[in-house]
Amino acid sequence: MLAKMAVEVMHDAEKQAMDFGAWRYSFKAMRAIVCAEEEARKLQQKYFGSAEILLGLMVEGTGIAALVLRLGKLKLSEVRVLASRKHVPCDGMPEDILLDNDGCNLVEAAKAIAVKRGESHIRTAHLLLAILESENSLAREILGLLHADMWSMKKGLTELLDQQTGKQQVD
Question: N or C: which end of the chain has fewer CB within 10 A?
């Protein structure tokens, strides 16, 4: 279902944000969510959560979150391997892959970060900040296993968001 919605958005170059539930996402954040759903499909999962959203941010590749993850020397292949080890493939794939509790918590945290910053859309930076600030998410566990410098990533994200305050938001 998300993939179908994203295709409609991608074909409409004029549209820069999209409704997802009761909240709006930047185009890049929505694309990252769609990529997360596709990563879950590759891992043969019925649900997707923070680990797949982390993968989605990396696969999307053009948002602030992807830039910070690249600067942190994280490799998509390594994140994908660790995410696959944390899941057991399911029998048969549903048409729609839904957010699990981990993913819902992450999206809610990203929304809270956006609201706190006075922004009207969830952006890729908000999603990554939510991962970095989470205590028990699978994505944060994966970052820890890869010895990611989460403090530096959080600092970099915050600085980039602060620089964009008052400017046109590009993420």
Answer: N
Task: Judge whether 57 and 69 are in contact, CB under 8 Å.
Answer: yes
pLDDT over 90 (residue 15): no
The amino acid at 6: A
3-state helix, strand, coil split of the chain in percent (to 5) is 60, 10, 30
**What phi, psi does 147 have (nearest 5°)?**
60, 40
Tens-place pLDDT, residues 61-100? 888 899 899 988 899 889 888 888 776 556 665 667 777 8
Token pair belonging to 35: 């990529």
Instruction: Give 145's contacts (C-beta < 8 A, 6+ positions apart).
Output: 82
Least confident segment among 20-34, 59-73, 147-161: 20-34
Contacts of 159 (CB under 8 A, 6+ apart): none
First to last CA, the chain: 23
Outline where 12-133 has alpha helix (H): 27-42, 50-60, 64-71, 76-85, 101-116, 124-133
Listed in sequence order, the residues at least 6 apart from 47 whose beta carbon sits closer than 8 Å to its beta carbon are 40, 97, 98, 99, 100, 103
72 phi and psi angles, rounded to 5 deg: -80, 5
Rounded CA-CA distance 65/68 in Å is: 5
